[in-house]
Structure formats: structure tokens, C-alpha cells
């Protein structure tokens, strides 16, 4: 079973629109992209997305909103969540993706990610089959069931302003974006 805990309207529409406007502004200025390589792309075979450097106020605002729901989210997963990492603001353009991976709490990797208990993704953009301004296509956040069982795949609804949380060891991917720009915020509760 894939255990997802979703909160619709996690960000109200005014807050969501303000964040999108800020991301649109930053997205046009490649110099502000946080990344090791000059193009702002990391490990292109694994992941193609851009992390945007938003203002400290916006980061703090999103983090506060997340922490206000930490007890509720932790109760769902039966774990105590004390803190969350600095939220990452992600921009996926046409062709961008993130291959199946786990965010943490997995025996495969022994690094700081092992302290991640619950992953959280906030959806900011409108999804639409047809290419229309302000929408994106493709870019589904798809969860995969345990490799020991029959193949199970579940896609998040991804309504704008909604939050989806899942155990950090749950395998998930973002399928390639086919048109438009997809913005999400990702963070991890510990
Ligand atoms: O953008 C998303 O929907 C998910 C991002 C993700 O999986 C990650 O940053 O680890
Ligand atoms: Fe992830």
C-alpha cells in the first residue's frame, strides 16, 4: 500500500499566486539559480529541474505553514516530526523530470537524508492537457509500491495549493513535463 496524506487548500489561492509570481520573476534571471553547475541543472540523467532562490520571507512563510501542520501529519504516519528542512522551490520546464527515487530513510544511502521521515510536496501550478498560458502538462508525481509486491503506481492529484506527504522511503518520480512550467515546493520533516 502507498500511504499518502494529502491536504487540499494547504496554501490559499492568494498565497499560492504570490509565490508563483515571485517564482516567475526569479525564473527569468538564471543567475539566481542555486546549483553546483552554471546551467542550474543537476545530474541531468537523474533529474532535470531548477531550484529557485526565493526570498527569506517566502521561505519562512512556507516553513511556518508546514510546521503548523507537523503534528497532524506526524499523527497520520505515527511519527513525531520536530522540524522541517528549508523548503526547495522547484521549476520544471518542458522536458524536465525526476527519475524514480527515495528521499531518505533508506538503507541504501548513509548520509544526512537518513533523518528524513516524511517528504512533503506543495503543488503550485495548474495542470491541463491542452497547452494554455499558466498551465503545464505531464509532470505527474507518481508513487511506486514496494518492489517486493505486484507493480503498483499511483499519481498524486496535484491540485494547485494542495500538499501531499509520504514516508521519505516511498519511491516516487516526476514524469517529464510536456508543456508549460510546473512549480512545486519540496521539503522534508524530521
Ligand atoms: O517536484 C515534485 O513533485 C517532487 C520533487 C522531489 O521528489 C524531490 O525534490 O525529491
Ligand atoms: Fe523526491
TrEMBL record:
PROSITE patterns in UniProt: FE2OG_OXY
Record-level Gene Ontology MF annotations: dioxygenase activity; iron ion binding; L-ascorbic acid binding; oxidoreductase activity, acting on paired donors, with incorporation or reduction of molecular oxygen
Domain spans labelled Fe2OG dioxygenase: 83-190
Keyword Hydrolase: no
Keywords of this entry: Dioxygenase, Iron, Metal-binding, Oxidoreductase, Vitamin C
Entry keyword annotation includes Oxidoreductase: yes
Cofactor: L-ascorbate
UniProt superkingdom: Bacteria
Protein name listed in UniProt: SM-20-related protein
Native species: Longimicrobium terrae
